[in-house]
Amino acid sequence: MDSTAIDHLMGLLGVQTDYYDFRGEHRLVPPSARRDILAAMGISSEDPDSVSEAIQTIELDDWQRLLPPVIVIGASGEHEILLHVRESDLESRLHWRLWCEDGRLLTGHVRPALLQRLGERTIGEHKWIRCKAALPDDLDPGYHELAIHAPGRSEAWVCRVIVVPATCHEQQTLQHGERHWGLSVQLYALRSERNWGIGDFGDLKRLAWKAGRRGAHMIGLNPLHALFPADPVQFSPYRPSNRSFLNILYIDVPAIEEATDCAALERLVRDTGFAARLESLRAAEHVDYHGVTEAKLSALRLLFEDFRKRHIARDTKRAQQFQSFVKEAGPALETHALFEALHAHFGRRNNGSSGWHDWPSEYRDPCSDAVMRFALRHREAIDFHQYLQWIADLQLTEAQSAAREAGMSIGLYRDLAVGVSPEGSEAWSNQQLFAAGATVGAPPDALALKGQDWGLPPLDPGRLRRQAFAEFSQLIRSNMRHCGALRIDHVMGLLRLWWVPQGSDATEGAYVYYPYRDLLGIVALESQREDCLVIGEDLGTVPDEIRQSLPGAAVYSYRVLMFEKNDDGSFRRPAEFPRRALATVSTHDLPPLHSYWDGSDIDLRERLGLYPDEQTIHHARASRQYDKSALLQALQQQQLCEHTGETIDDNLVVAIHQYLARSDAALVTAQPEDWLGMTEPVNVPGTSTALFPNWRRKLVQDIDGMLDHPTAHRLFAAMSEERS
Fold first, then answer.
1. pLDDT tens-digit profile of 589-615?
2. What percent of the chain has pLDDT over 90?
3. How far apart, in whole angstroms, are the C-alpha atoms of residue 111 and residue 698?
4. CB atoms near residue 525 (< 10 Å)
5. 3-state class (DSSP) for residue 524
6. Which residues lie below 8 Å from residue 152, measured CB to CB, with a gap of 6+?
7. Long-range contact set of residues 495-499: C-beta below 8 Å, sequence gap at least 24
8. What is the pLDDT of residues 166-206, one digit of tens each?
9. Are 38 and 102 in contact (CB under 8 A)?
10. DSSP letters along 625-656, please?
């Protein structure tokens, strides 16, 4: 097969055939990876005719469409669109209608012969002309729909017109130069005397209120995405089932309105055996997802049955509120709830969980007759899962309200995962958008010399555009609900993702590019609508385009102190941090401060076999000693600490956070693990749950205890003083 044709095709599809690695060395994508990535996009590179046909389809498709499927334009500047018309139709009057999001209907007509010509192309018997037309200049930011009737075509050409602002939302306090601080927690890790073995929205509400009264401006959270109630072993928040919906295990069961006088629930919780189970779940060192799921679902089913009898059957105001939520959420919620019912159904039939790829073939298509028949027969089960999403949404709303009432300028700060499980609701519901033959990962870098394969199916950029970015818009919108800030995990994914062909090593992948400016514009639009700050997690290999464009779009950078070093190994001075940034000491993928300082994280990784050889272990220990010395020197230069010992104490913990709080970064967060002296990490990248209890470890103290800890008082006071 002609490699030139394949390279040309890959260029049209946004697949990069070469790249520069983390050392700056030029790398070529191997032929096998090129072939497999094209196959993941549905194109066989083994067949010359298939390659030629794909090239022709891509190159000619736009020419033979009067309108593109979608156009994203800036709110300021000229509003223009490209039209493609046959030369024989240049003198025709094309009638257009533009439905504005605010309800206005604009109409008019245009003669292509009077428009500016930008090119021409002969396809078959016809010559096609590309010309530029002006759109109304008073379009507000939002989603509009343009339709044009063309000669000889019964149906109108339709284009989604998305008008976007230039920047994302920034709170006025930040615009005026104020600097804020907050806490960062894993919600499931919170302890309290009243939760059911996992941190919940009730705990979050209490934490937000108490931390806000102590001067915090925000509470950073792990992703709250829907996981797998029918398969509790899948509990990684960064490998969710559906990112547009919430994890129902975070529901605070006793806080549900139906729990107030539900006799069935009262009998359940008074049962001595059930009460003992709850006590055991609370006391456990790690979250028992199986136990928590079983306990919560048994109670939630009782509450739903009570809700059906007392509200749905009587069409009460509360029932109408639920129905309004379902209507607003639309088909996406219906399909997600249908997936949940199917997942539970086939899990019971198979004596365990079952991914949708293992379901009978007629159930793998959400629109199949078999699925529709199932939906009719199991309406109550679908309604149950919609009810759970409604309750979770209400309780998250209450937590954000508590944060704002406590004086927080931002409140909850949510996290959007970069991808989803291939076996989850989102992948099942939107199969046409995902490339089934590849996964997302990262090329080799200093921390992962063998590269990374995250096992997440990538969105196909071409299909995303043909679908007019509807799913992407909905995804961003749903994750900006009930929060003041959103962190976009691996924000580089708006520009490019590292695709790894299934069955291949992570080193044998390639970068696939996405319509970056369009996606960033949609993020800005939803950000402005929801008054939601945007933080882009830009760690690892970051393209220059990302670094250069995000600050101007008011997307905040994500800066981790341990990585903020100069070329000579010294730590970046506080004044050298960018203003539009969130700075933190560590992250969920890095060790807590105490294990970083005593090197126990290196010991752990050695025990888990994550180092390739003794030389690498020795280098890790030597580098850590150097970094600790450099950090102590940086603290001493700021006259924050005279600490010289090998052990870490409360003074050093406070000094490190004070150093960060002194930085020019507008936002700074601290995590309770550091002031509580914990050493066990949240997650050890590169390990499975069989090797290490990732995403399960709880905090060592409850909410009141951790906020009243002496070091917490000192740290909060130092942060407030430095940030004021």
1. 999 999 999 999 999 999 999 988 999
2. 86
3. 67
4. 23
5. helix
6. none
7. 495/543, 495/545, 495/546, 496/16, 496/543, 497/440, 497/458, 498/440, 498/441, 498/442, 498/443, 498/451, 499/15, 499/37, 499/40, 499/435, 499/438, 499/439, 499/440, 499/458
8. 999 999 999 999 999 999 999 999 999 999 999 999 999 99
9. no
10. HHHHHHHHHHHHHTT-----SSS--HHHHHHH
> Residue 281 carries which side chain, given as an amino acid letter?
L
Closest of 385, 396, 388 to residue 258, by C-alpha: 388
Beta strands in 518-636 (DSSP E): 533-536, 555-560, 581-584
Q: What mean pLDDT is predicted for residues 342-352? A: 85
pLDDT at 314: 97
d(Cα 678, Cα 680) in Å, to the nearest integer?
Answer: 6
- Does the pLDDT of residue 645 top 80, yes or no? no
pLDDT digits (tens, 9 = 90+) for 60-104: 888 999 999 999 999 887 899 999 999 999 999 999 999 999 999
In which order are the strands placed within the sheet that holds 105-110? 70-74, 157-164, 142-149, 94-99, 105-110
Which tokens in the block code for residue 304? 């739903």
Pairwise CA distance, residues 252 & 280, whole Å? 17
- Residue 444: its pLDDT value, please? 83
Residue type, 37: I
- The model's pTM is 0.96
β-strand partners of 98: 106, 146
Position 1 scores a pLDDT of: 55
Residues 59, 61, 62, 64, Cα dihedral to 10° = 120
3-state secondary structure string across 166-187: CCCCCCHHHHCCCCEEEEEECH
Mean pLDDT of 313-335: 98
Q: How many CB atoms lie within 10 A of CB 648?
A: 19
Sequence spans of domains, the chain: 3-61, 77-164, 172-589+664-723
- Asked whether residue 393 carries a pLDDT value surpassing 70, the answer given is yes
Query: At a CB cut-off of 8 Å and minimum separation 6, what does 675 contact?
Result: 650, 653, 706, 709, 711, 712, 715
Q: Does domain 77-164 have CATH number 2.60.40?
A: yes
**pLDDT tens for residues 692-706?**
999 999 999 999 999
Please determine whether the domains at 77-164 and 172-589+664-723 fall in the same fold group of CATH. Answer: no
Q: Identify any residues that bridge with 557 across adjacent strands, giving them in sequence order.
A: 536, 581
Provide CATH code, domain 172-589+664-723. 3.20.20.80
Three-state DSSP state, 565: strand
577 to 291, 409, 558, 562, 660: CA distances (angstroms):
44, 22, 11, 13, 9
